[in-house]
């Protein structure tokens, strides 16, 4: 029995499913989840000291790589000063200023503790600001486990086959309208009928919770137009894409300006941080300035701010995202070449430093129904094969993969050699 198997057995006695977040349980791929002991750069080390090249990066935050010395130093320094005061600190303003500089659509920003809190707060704010109840989301997009947003959601909800969760009152879910990602005509039709009742459209500008689906040309532009025509708040959920697709996020990459943005993952440098921000006029509706309530005991915690700000400063260095995108493209194209060599149909896609691969005959995947047609059984075999070779991919056919700056050319070659070997066995 491996250490992971022993630990998983123990964990299941006390933690539902043995995990604190469902996708970690490996239900999407079978087998025992790997328990990790430490991490350094592009590598994770399990409880048996086996090394893995990591393409999850703690689900996105570790864009620099693990145990980055700059982040460690910032954390150590803050620990010596105190781990939290529940009162204003200078570093919160430094952080807010940095976010506003990097993401120009954000004129004011509020820190929270997770991506879920960020989207939840942005939705409440949009409803409070517009005085409307209905919201539009897209099938297969995941915005955290917010009641209103856990309708036809992606990520773990999709991996476990539960895109609608029990526990959400029908009277709440009825305000959520779910439309097809990348189908602007469907959006226009809905808005023609009830546009003036819709508070917000929330969208992952690159869908990363049904694998990786970039927007088709015109989709994000169309959302912006429709929102402008109907006084609806356009919310980009950039929890995953923020600071990753480009320094200014997907909105910078595609040149579309949302009204509100939800952030998470990279913004915390590995600590629990989220944020939501946007137009000053809307953000001024948040308490204590305005009537829309939102708060947090640990929001803006100095340890989290120290890690997050250090991470944002590091990725602001010139050339960072070009380098990261180049690495991502090498992995993406290498997977495709390995599949071609083995005669396995594979579609690969990416946006900046996130990528996805689909076992499908289709040349590309743009819609949720196409995602559902992919060969999940083949993905599982590929995942398990790569894991055995020491490459840690997301344990679900419905998650995007991430590349970190610490990933070297040798690591990429190691990964692609493993991919060639495993593809040949499929
Ligand atoms: N939005 C998106 C796009 C996400 O990918 C996630 C998490 N994967 C969330 C929101 C929720 O973030 P958290 O898990 O930090 O609550």
UniProtKB/TrEMBL annotation:
Homodimer. GO terms for cellular component: cytoplasm. This is Glutamate-1-semialdehyde 2,1-aminomutase. The modification N6-(pyridoxal phosphate)lysine is found at residue 265. Pathway: Porphyrin-containing compound metabolism; protoporphyrin-IX biosynthesis; 5-aminolevulinate from L-glutamyl-tRNA(Glu): step 2/2. Its EC number is 5.4.3.8. PANTHER family: GLUTAMATE-1-SEMIALDEHYDE 2,1-AMINOMUTASE, GLUTAMATE-1-SEMIALDEHYDE 2,1-AMINOMUTASE 1, CHLOROPLASTIC-RELATED. GO terms for molecular function: glutamate-1-semialdehyde 2,1-aminomutase activity; pyridoxal phosphate binding; transaminase activity. One of its GO terms (biological process) is protoporphyrinogen IX biosynthetic process. It is found in: Cytoplasm. Gene3D superfamilies: Aspartate Aminotransferase, domain 1 (3.90.1150.10), Type I PLP-dependent aspartate aminotransferase-like (Major domain) (3.40.640.10). Keywords: Cytoplasm, Isomerase, Porphyrin biosynthesis, Pyridoxal phosphate. Its cofactor is pyridoxal 5'-phosphate. It catalyses: (S)-4-amino-5-oxopentanoate = 5-aminolevulinate. Belongs to the class-III pyridoxal-phosphate-dependent aminotransferase family. HemL subfamily. The keyword DNA-binding does not apply. It comes from the Bacteria. It is an enzyme of class 5 (isomerase).
């Amino acid at each position: 029995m491996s250490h992971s198997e022993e630990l998983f057995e123990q964990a299941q006695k006390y933690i539902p499913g043995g995990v604190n977040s469902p996708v970690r349980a490996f239900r999407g791929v079978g087998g025992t989840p790997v328990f990790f002991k430490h991490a350094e750069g592009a590598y994770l080390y399990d409880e048996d000291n086996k090394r893995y090249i990591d393409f999850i990066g703690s689900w996105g935050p570790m864009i620099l790589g693990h145990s980055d010395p700059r982040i460690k130093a910032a954390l150590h320094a803050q620990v010596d000063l105190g781990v939290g005061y529940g009162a204003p600190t200078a570093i919160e303003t430094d952080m807010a200023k940095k976010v506003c500089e990097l993401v120009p659509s954000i004129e004011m920003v509020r820190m929270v503790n997770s991506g879920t809190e960020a989207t939840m707060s942005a939705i409440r704010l949009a409803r409070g600001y517009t005085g409307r109840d209905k919201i539009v989301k897209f099938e297969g997009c995941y915005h955290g486990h917010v009641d209103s947003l856990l309708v036809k959601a992606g990520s773990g909800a999709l991996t476990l086959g539960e895109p609608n969760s029990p526990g959400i009152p029908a009277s709440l879910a009825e305000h959520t309208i779910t439309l097809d990602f990348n189908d602007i005509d469907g959006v226009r039709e809905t808005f023609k009928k009830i546009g003036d009742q819709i508070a917000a459209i929330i969208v992952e500008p690159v869908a990363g919770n049904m694998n990786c689906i970039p927007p088709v040309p015109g989709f994000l532009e169309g959302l912006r137009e429709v929102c402008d025509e109907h006084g609806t708040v356009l919310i980009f959920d950039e929890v995953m894409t923020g600071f990753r697709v480009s320094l200014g996020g997907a909105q910078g990459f595609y040149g579309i300006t949302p009204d509100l943005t939800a952030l998470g993952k990279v913004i915390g440098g590995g600590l629990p941080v989220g944020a939501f921000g946007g137009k000053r006029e809307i953000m001024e509706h948040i308490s204590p300035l305005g009537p829309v309530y939102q708060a947090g005991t640990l929001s803006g915690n100095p340890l989290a701010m120290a890690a997050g700000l250090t991470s944002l400063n590091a990725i602001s260095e010139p050339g960072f995202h070009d380098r990261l995108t180049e690495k991502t493209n090498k992995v993406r194209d290498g997977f495709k070449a390995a599949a071609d060599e083995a005669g396995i149909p594979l579609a690969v896609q990416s946006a900046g430093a996130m990528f996805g691969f689909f076992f499908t005959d289709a040349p590309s995947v743009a819609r949720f129904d196409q995602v559902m047609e992919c060969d999940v059984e083949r993905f599982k075999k590929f995942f398990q094969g790569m894991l055995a070779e020491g490459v840690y991919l997301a344990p679900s056919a419905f998650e995007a993969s991430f590349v970190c700056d610490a990933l070297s050319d040798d690591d990429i070659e190691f990964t692609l050699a493993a991919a060639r070997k495993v593809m040949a066995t499929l």
